[in-house]
Each structure stands twice: as C-alpha cells, then as structure tokens.
C-alpha cells in the first residue's frame, strides 16, 4: 500500500487455515485488525499462543519478533501492518 523512506504499509488477507510462514520482523511494527482475527502464533521455542484481535484494534511489537501466524478462525481475517523504518 505504501513503501517509502519512513514506513512500509501492507494489507494481509488470510483464508481460514492460511498462515504467514515463519518470519522474523526486521522493523518495529503496528498491526491494525480490519476483521476479527483469530490467530495461532507459533513461536521458535515450540510454544503456541491463541489470540483474538478484535476488528478495529491495534497492537505494536519491536523488531526481532519471530513467529508463524495461522488463521484458526472460521472466516477470512484481514489486517494492516505498518512497519517503521
């Protein structure tokens, strides 16, 4: 959506069961949920966290986060990620 000298803004849409694949965030970032997001976060130490992010809410994380995110809901989930360069 935007990729300039200061930010990268990307919309993600995941069907039920779809996943991001393992990745490490190279920048601090903010996620804003467009739809209610029922996520399973797989972490490098083998643990998993089930998280529901309500539509219209946001959260931030520091660079270095490594995980795989899976849509464990019965509906598609959509969110916008803003990476801070």
Compute the gyration radius: what is it? 12 Å
Strand content: over 45%
Specify the helix fraction band. under 10%
Q: Helical region count?
A: 0
Protein architecture, described:
The chain has 85 residues and is mostly beta strands. The chain has no helices and nine strands. The chain has strands at residues 2-3, 7-14, 23-24, 28-33, 37-42, 48-53, 58-61, 66-71, 77-84. Strand 1 (2-3) and strand 2 form a beta hairpin.
Provide a compact summary of the structure.
This protein is an all-beta fold and 85 residues long.
List the helices and strands and how they pair.
Layout lengths: L1 E2 L3 E8 L8 E2 L3 E6 L3 E6 L5 E6 L4 E4 L4 E6 L5 E8 L1
Antiparallel strand pairs: 1-2, 2-9, 3-8, 4-7, 4-9, 5-6, 5-8
What attributes characterize this protein structure?
four-stranded antiparallel sheet; globular; 85 residues; mainly beta; five-stranded antiparallel sheet
